Amino acid sequence: MSEHDSVPTTDPAHERPPGTDDATVAAVGKLSEAWEWIERARGHLYDFHQMMGHADLTVGEAADELEAAGHAHHAELLRREIIGRNVLEGRWTFQVVEEYDDDYYSPVREVEARVRGDLMGGKRHVFEAEMKEQRRTHGKPGHEPAP
Predict the structure, then answer these.
(1) CA-CA distances (angstroms) from residue 96 to 2, 58, 90?
(2) How far apart are the first and last CA of the chain?
(3) How far is residue 58's CA from residue 61's CA, in Å, rounded to a whole number?
(4) What CA–CA distances, in Å, run from 110 to 57, 113, 140?
(5) What is the model's pTM?
(6) What whole-number distance in Å separates Cα of residue 129 and Cα of residue 86?
(7) Where are the domains of the chain?
(8) What are the pLDDT digits (tens) for 5-59?
(9) Tens-place pLDDT, residues 55-90
(10) Longest Cα pair distance anywhere in the chain, in angstroms?
(11) Nearest-5° angle of CA 19, CA 22, CA 28?
């Protein structure tokens, strides 16, 4: 019996399924960690998408201001060369986001859920829940097992 087996969780939503060994809990926990990194990467991709959209609109404002200041040639240069330009070959950022979602994010989400469903009965964060039980100080305020 391992450390995890000897520390029962007080949260049924995060209890390991009966008969599940430590190695399986740890492996699914590692997959959960990877999934969290994928989620973070997706968030950064959406940040990039919104930042680039904002930048393109701001370049448009700069072109308008240059034109108003008597620099029509430079305003036209911005409009012709920068405004509306693809960030990758043939793609604006919304297309990059959609490709990521369709070709990577969605299939990985489905496989992660399948593995968790098959091995953990669909329960999330079993590894972390057991770690919490091991690390918290039982009976100490601020270390309660649940809200």
Answers:
(1) 45, 21, 10
(2) 29
(3) 5
(4) 36, 5, 39
(5) 0.83
(6) 45
(7) 20-131
(8) 545 666 888 999 999 999 999 999 999 999 999 999 999 999 999 999 999 999 9
(9) 999 999 999 999 999 999 999 999 999 999 999 999
(10) 79
(11) 95
